[in-house]
Amino acid sequence: MRDLAFTQKVKLYHYHGKPSFRAKSKFQICSAGDSILDDRPVPAVTPRKKTIVTIERMSHRTGYTDDHAKSGLDHDFPGIDTWPNQFPAYEIVIDVPEFTSVCPKTGLPDFGTLEIRYMPGKLCLELKSLKEYLLHYRNLGIFQENIVNQVLEDVARACKPKWAVVKGVFRPRGGIGTTVEARWPRPKK
Known about the structure:
With 189 residues, the protein is of the alpha+beta class. Helices cover 16% and strands 35% of the residues. The protein has a four-stranded antiparallel beta sheet with strand order 6-7-9-10, covered by helices on one side. Strands 1-2 form a two-stranded antiparallel sheet. It is elongated and about 50 Å long. The chain has two domains: 52 residues, no CATH class; 115 residues, GTP Cyclohydrolase I, domain 2, CATH 3.30.1130. A hairpin with a 2-residue loop joins strand 1 and strand 2.
């Protein structure tokens, strides 16, 4: 039987006292040596009787789930304080050179830089409260792409800028670095 660990998450249940599998889609498991085709059911064989199994599919071979993807987005972040803007038509760039967070799957730290660039409307971001807000990411399990988009949403909610761009440049792990950029206002659907 093909090793399911690399392609599918399989939950083991008991079926009439014998181990069996359960899943959302109708797949069946073959006896040892037979191949499993992802899109076609094949006869299931157990030592005593046929058993239909279902397989809960994962998003890729990596084992990441929807819970990993949503991790950190429901965190209760503190508000970002603002102060009244005194001038029109200028740009503010905030550089965060030592940003840290945690991978939601492995628990390993992620390091990077954040750049928040915006044109203020009536309000400007207060930097101390922004720093305290960003410290909440330090031990939070959240994907890098979600960090950038969440920071952009919270900055836009706090100061209602004319426009804003948040860019995250994350250090390589496993030989791959990531750069994520999100813009406000968001494109209309």
